[in-house]
Recover the amino acids of this structure.
């Protein structure tokens, strides 16, 4: 009789590939944000950071609302307002203020501390304790970005440092709350991005028009810059970002922001700048930290799994004293 043995299926190979694809798509968001400094300095009118923030948020949010045609319901009105204020309305002005008052390297290094702040906020809000593995690589990532972007003449301006830390903190809280609240049933990531971009843009609208107004002389280059910031850096980037936050652990998504200063450095090289040996080492460290955060920490070799001792088998029916006595009687011929 031929018996066919059915091989048990192993773990699906598509799970790791699907996770890698999710990480890659999510990484496009901070990678696109890394072009903001070059676009701002090369194409946009100088001295209008609030207006640039407004153009990055509000048009993109309105386009998303027009495409999805879904408005918040119930408690999601105030949740969308809170997330829009944290991720957009407060973060953008603080980011541009830090960029104005600090050298780009100092501002980028402060932003690279976001994974550590996210870990702290996630531990308090989500009760998700960070592993020593990710904490260590988070510190290495900050150090690597610092080597890439910090120069010997970098100066520290107290208001600029506070603005940089404030922007990093608001974004960290926004990431954790986005993970905690998730999305309503039937609401996609573009809809969630549209809610937040619109809420943040409406918060920026009166401030930008009152403080700065509309810049004069918006030429074709500036229009293209605003289109890039609002399209790729706003609508597409935040759709991918919020999608990734919903699918990945915060410990895996937060370190992806290290791509922003790294992409900024690559764009700088493309524009004629050069990286020294120390900067190249920092680039490699930051990239290694970003990749290591996506991996599972190796198990400790010294820790052994304790195997419980085998349980004693229950006595059989013929192992009882009565059965043994009966067996002896049979052998002696009494039965």
């Amino acid at each position: 009789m031929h018996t066919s043995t059915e091989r048990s299926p192993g773990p699906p190979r598509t799970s790791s590939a699907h996770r890698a694809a999710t990480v890659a798509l999510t990484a496009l968001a901070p990678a696109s944000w890394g072009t903001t400094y070059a676009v701002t300095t090369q194409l946009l009118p100088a001295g209008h950071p609030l207006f640039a923030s407004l153009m990055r948020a509000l048009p993109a949010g309105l386009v998303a609302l027009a495409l999805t045609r879904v408005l918040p319901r119930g408690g999601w009105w105030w949740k969308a307002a809170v997330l829009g204020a944290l991720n957009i309305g407060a973060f953008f002005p603080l980011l541009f203020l830090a960029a104005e008052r600090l050298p780009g390297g100092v501002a980028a290094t402060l932003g690279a501390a976001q994974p550590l702040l996210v870990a702290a906020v996630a531990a308090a809000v989500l009760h998700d304790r960070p592993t020593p593995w990710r904490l260590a690589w988070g510190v290495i990532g900050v150090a690597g970005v610092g080597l890439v972007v910090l120069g010997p003449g970098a100066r520290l301006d107290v208001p600029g440092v506070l603005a940089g830390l404030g922007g990093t903190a608001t974004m960290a809280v926004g990431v954790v709350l986005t993970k905690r609240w998730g999305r309503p049933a039937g609401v996609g990531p573009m809809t969630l991005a549209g809610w937040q971009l619109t809420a943040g843009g409406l918060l920026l609208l009166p401030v930008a028009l009152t403080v700065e107004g509309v810049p004069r002389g918006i030429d074709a280059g500036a229009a293209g810059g605003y289109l890039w910031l609002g399209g790729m850096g706003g609508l597409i980037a935040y759709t991918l970002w919020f999608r990734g936050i919903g699918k990945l652990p915060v410990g895996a998504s937060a370190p992806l922001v290290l791509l922003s200063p790294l992409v900024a450095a690559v764009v700088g090289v493309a524009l004629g700048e050069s990286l020294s040996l120390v900067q190249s080492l920092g680039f490699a460290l930051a990239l290694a930290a970003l990749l290591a955060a996506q991996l599972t920490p190796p198990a400790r070799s010294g820790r052994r799994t304790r195997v419980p001792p085998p349980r004693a088998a229950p006595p059989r029916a013929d192992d009882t004293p009565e059965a043994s006595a009966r067996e002896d009687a049979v052998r002696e011929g009494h039965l």
About this structure: Confidence is low (pLDDT under 50) at residues 1-14, 329-335. Residues 193 and 277 are 40 Å apart (CA to CA). The chain has one domain: 36-292. The chain has 15 helices and no strands.
